[in-house]
Amino acid sequence: MLVFFGGLLPLATVAYVMGRRKALVADARGDRLHSLPGQYGVYVATWMALPAIAIGVVAAGAALLGVQVPAAPFVLIFALVGAAVGGAMALRRVEPGLRARNAIEKFVYWTLFTASLVSILTTLGIILSIVFEALKFFNQVSVWHFITGTNWSPVAQFRPDQQTAESQFGSVPLFAGTFMISAIAMLVAIPIGVLSAVYMSEYAPYRVRTIAKPLLEILAGIPTVVYGFFAAITVSPLVVDVAALFGLNASYTNALAPGLVMGIMIIPFISSLSDDVINSIPNSLREGAYALGSTRSETIKNIVLPAAFPGIMAASLLGVSRALGETMIVVMAAGLRPNLTWNPLEDMTTVTVRIVDGLTGDQAFDSPETLAAFALGLVLFVVTLTLNLVSIIVIRKFRQSYE
Amino acid sequence: MTDRISLTPSRHLKKRYRAEKRFKACCIGALVLAMAFLVLFFTDMIRQGYSAFYETQIRAEVTYNEDTVEFAMDSVSEEVFPLVSRAFFRGVPRQVENNPDLMDTTQTQWLTAKADVDQYLKGHSESLDPEMKASLEQLQADGDVGYGFNTGLFFSGDSKIPSNAGLWSAFVGTFYLMLVVLAISFPIGVATAIYLEEFAPDNRFTQAIEININNLAAVPSILFGLLGLAIFINFFGVPRSSALAGGLTLSLMTLPVIIISTRAALKAVPQNIRQGAQAVGASRWQAVRDHVLPLALPGILTGTIIGIAQAIGETAPLLLIGMIAYIPDAPGNLTDAATVLPAQIFTWAGMPERAYVSLTAAGILVLLSLLIVLNATAVILRNRFERRW
To answer: ABC transmembrane type-1 domain: which residues (chain B) (predicted)?
Structure first.
């Protein structure tokens, strides 16, 4: 690899110099060049590098797929020959009328286009990697049982052929735990997030705004593993103590603590998005309301918030999506026991906890528990994708309507 | 209709003003509450973590000779031995090897105390073995117990001995990981943003790419871990737990952040810069390369730093690709098993000994300082170089 690129660089330089010189010679003869001399150089160098890189990539790809590939030195020689042929042909084409600049432009365009495909490939990669393993899982466990079953008790299987008791993969308790914790988080995050956004965009003097906004953003920048530690070490015991004051019995891995901390984490997402949305409401609406005698809060409650509602809704949906997929906080502070309950003081487990648990153990990779992690991942992906898409489209529409 | 307009505030109006005040108080209250969380959080972390930055040390005579190299426990007196960290005794042969002059001498040294002793003196635990307590009190009376800066926290790797555990291997792992993330996500991210902002035709496909990028920015990070596991490790055969596997996975997560901020930076460059360049004969790419990009660079760098800072704190996908292994030594290259700061914090958080709680909090403080430095750099960069048109 290093040899490959290390060898390509001086070759490309040589090609550049040769292409440029040929163009300069033509220029000295008095011919009118279409492009700058350097562009002819770049043209030749590109045509030299492209075949070499293509051969290298194809060889590497073939090797990964297990196709028989000639040994590395041969690949190198092939690449060199490709480079030489490509370079020579390009050099022959260099003449005053050649539109080197246009060729470069085209090359740049396609390079940038290829780069933009990486993001599509990432999404495809996520879908493929999850779907294939999830399908394997659903071959063993029925979809219906997975979606409606209320008993999740996988039995660890350390070797693929090991005989064990029947595993149960009813995922309802996991979803219940996930929704319970997310709901607690949103109960914290939405009121605090929206109200502080209202304060910052409608009431706060400029100075307060410039200080408060970055401070809130700090909350979003704190790594989730840190929140997880905070939830487990500080908030959970606090919840247990407070519950004891009321004579209630709380588990140390209760659902309330991770929910609260997750809510704190999501506040800045909601507040900064809502802030943007509220700011994009045109002032003429507010002035109209003031002119009719509304107080500030009446204007906000009756005019600004209803107008901003789609945007705030979208922000909240993004928050929900984040809460559902949040992993570290629940891994560190929520329980492992699948538990179907309405009581947030009991321990509950979530989808993400089970994904981590299924994939960090010592089970064989093809064991149902490992595959179940991918099935849960698939559900998580579908749900968050829906939430994200809805909110992205709503925000886009919203922006357009006030532009 | 009546023409009576009362100039004294009616009861109704008073009520409305009270409602106004209440609402404003609610809004302020929400913001104050959020700030209170922030303060509570930081004070709690500092309270938990500050004590791990210093360590208890014990002054003792250390004898170096043939016997003590063989049986290091004999190098100090019997009273001191149970109080000193086992890590010191493991290091005795290496000390002599590195410095042969030590052989057959007796040195007075400050030795790192055992975690039990350390925790007892810091008041984190009440109980200590009575014999140890007695010799500790004797030593304290003689002034042989002191506190020193815990250099091990920064310069030694992970360890099962709490008094010897440090962040060094996590630092190195984080550094490698960031190299990979930067090398992959910066060029691809900037190229994508340039394509979308400057070249792409406005058609369905472009819109699909845009929506896709916005969605990727909000996909739960753990799903990137599933991708890393299934594709990079199982399909492409990248070594598990390596900085390369982690870096590749995190690059894909950082990509949308860099794309979105680069696009914003490019969008902020006014249209007439491009038109001016093209008017004097620059091609589209030349205009972008020579005029738009340099002007957008501060914004691009700011976005990149913020993306990197996010990647540094990310843990969930790394759990899935096995970066929570016990890594006592710093990785030597990209394919060695590595750990990173947040993963180290996670590992320590799961340790049963009390000493690891302070270590975890100290690790968190170090991580947070690193992130604050990075983000402050980004803010300074933005304020200093950002141009407004």
So the answer is: 171-377
Q: What is the pLDDT of residues A103-134, one digit of tens each?
A: 888 889 999 999 999 888 888 988 988 888 88
Q: Is A134 exposed, middle or buried (0-12, 13-18, 19+ CB in 10 A)?
A: buried
Of B19, B30, B255, which is closest to A192 when you measure between CB atoms? B30
Nearest to A215 among B38, B342, B379 (CB): B38
Kindly report the average pLDDT of chain A as a whole number: 84
Q: B153, B53 in Cβ contact below 8 A?
A: yes
Contacts B187 to A, Cβ<8 Å: 115
The domain A168-401 is placed in CATH, from the list 3.90.870.10, 3.40.50.2000, 3.30.70.100, 1.10.3720.10, at 1.10.3720.10
Q: What is the pLDDT of residues B12-31, one digit of tens each?
A: 888 888 999 999 999 999 99
Angle in degrees, CA A44, A49, A54, rounded to 5? 135
Beta strands, E only, chain B: 54-64, 105-112, 145-149
DSSP string across B169-202: HHHHHHHHHHHHHHHHHHHHHHHHHHIIIII--S
**B46: distance to nearest CA of chain A, Å?**
12
Question: Would you tell me which residues 309-328 of chain B have a C-beta closer than 8 angstroms to some C-beta of chain A?
Answer: 309-310, 312-316, 319-320, 322, 324
Residues of chain B in contact with residue A130, where contact means CB-CB under 8 angstroms, are 223, 226-227, 230
Based on its alpha-carbon atoms, the radius of gyration of chain B, rounded to whole angstroms, reads 30
- Domains in chain B, start-ordered, CATH in brackets? 51-90+106-150 (no CATH), 168-385 (1.10.3720.10)
- B85 and B60 in contact (C-beta within 8 Å)? no
Per domain, the residue ranges of chain A are 2-112, 168-401
Collect all residues of chain A within an 8 Å Cβ-Cβ radius of residue B22.
Answer: 297
The pTM score is: 0.86
DSSP-derived secondary structure letter, B78: T
Mutate to test the interface with B, among A57, A112, A210 (most CBs of B within 10 A): A112
